[in-house]
Amino acid sequence: MAFDVVVLGSLHMDIVVSAPDRPRRGETVAGHAWSLKPGGKGGNQAVEAACAGARTAMIGAIGGDEFGRAILQNLRTFAVDTTHVGVRPDAGSGMSVAIVDAGGDYGAVIVSGANLLLSAAEVDAADRLFHAAGWLILQQEVPDAANIAAAAKARQQGVRTILNAAPARPFPPPLRGFVDLLIVNEIEAEAMAAVGVDSLATAMAAARRLLDFADATIVTAGGAGAALASRNGAAVEIPGHSVDLVSTHGAGDCFIGVLAARLARGDGLEPAARYANAAAALRVASPPGSARAHDPAAIRELLQSGDIEPIR
Fold first, then answer.
1. Is 253 labeled as catalytic in the residue annotation?
2. pLDDT tens for residues 202-260?
């Protein structure tokens, strides 16, 4: 079977805590709700791509524990191929704690667990996934060696590569020349490009500077939108949409998964980015579990009107 999108990356069980605010150092804050949600940047982006219509496969690692079983079942529920998700009984599954504040913003702590055991060996074992695939998605919650091996294999097979350089860390030199599209948010852009991002203009300045690392770059700037630059001279500012904020948790992963799915369908980079930007806006405006971010009619409405009525 040929896949539109192959994702190599992290798989976590997210413990999502709702609280009035995120605690400062030494502070205890009383929250009012918590939930378990299978995630990790890799898992989230694979599910988002699949929900956007892409035939998607996952390369990852989980522990032989209850969290791992739930993560695996979640991927399968959304028709993500899990043949190359390895079970590692020598490590616990990855997990994170995300605290969502009253304003809908969040902060998170991850414990990588089995994700740190991913290596070039797992990439070699998944060789068949790269035959006739469209796009490979990588993030930085797994070891560099696995990402480098996957990017090199993708280039050999004519598969284009997206690197979501999150969380921020120095760009691995062996990845130079293997990344077609680099995607970062404001925090990661500042770390990699030394440009503070607080508007579309500064996002564009960072996107242009980051072309040292990839053929094209996208810097997402939260509610302001996103800036796209490429070495062929393209420079596009994509404004954000006016929506009521429910939660920003998962918005970046929605953007990347939907973007990859649209690129795999044959969209150009700019229309794919505009479509993904609208999907991410619907994600932050929707309650947990809502499928509205993948409703083509809702996305088209938002693209045409620029804003939407609040979603409850």
1. yes
2. 999 999 999 999 999 999 998 899 999 999 999 999 998 888 778 777 889 999 999 99
Domains of the chain: 5-22+32-179+241-305 (3.40.1190.20)
How many CB atoms within 10 Å of residue 132?
13
Per-residue three-class SS string for the chain: CCCCEEEECCCEEEEEEECCCCCCCCCCCCCCEEEEEEECHHHHHHHHHHHCCCCEEEEEEEECCHHHHHHHHHHHHCCCEEEEEEEECCCCCEEEEEEECCCCCEEEEEECHHHHHCCHHHHHHCHHHHCCCCEEEEECCCCHHHHHHHHHHHHHHCCEEEEECCCCCCCCHHHCCCCCEEEECHHHHHHHHCCCCCCHHHHHHHHHHHHHCCCEEEEECHHHEEEEEECCCCEEEEECCECCCCCCCCHHHHHHHHHHHHHHHCCCHHHHHHHHHHHHHHHHCCCCCCCHHHCHHHHHHHHHHCECCCCC
Distances (CA, A) of 26 to 33, 100, 311: 21, 18, 36
Q: Among residues 14, 65, 101, 253, which one is catalytic?
A: 253
For the entire predicted model, the pTM comes to 0.91
Q: What is the pLDDT of residues 170-205, one digit of tens each?
A: 999 999 999 999 999 999 999 999 999 999 999 999
